[in-house]
Amino acid sequence: MYDIITFGSATSDIFLRLKKESYQILRKKKKLLCFPLGAKIFIDDLKIASGGGATNTAATFAKQGLRTAVCTKVGQDKRGEALIEELKKLNVETQFIKKDKKYSTAHSIILSSPPEDRTVLIYKGACHFMESSDIAWRKLKKVKWFYLAPLTGKSAQLFGPLVEFAKKNNIKIAANPGNSQLNLNRKILKPILSQIDILILNIEEASLLAKAEEEIKIIKKLSSLTKGIIVITKQKKGSIVFDGKYIYKAGIAAPHILPLEKTGAGDAYAAGFLTGFFKKNDIKYAIQLATANATSCILEIGAKKGLLAEGQWEQQLGPRVRVQIKRCK
Ligand SMILES: Nc1ncnc2c1ncn2[C@@H]1O[C@H](COP(=O)(O)OP(=O)(O)OP(=O)(O)O)[C@@H](O)[C@H]1O
Ligand SMILES: [Mg+2]
Question: Using a 6 Å cutoff on CB, does residue 237 contact ligand 1?
Answer without folding.
Answer: no
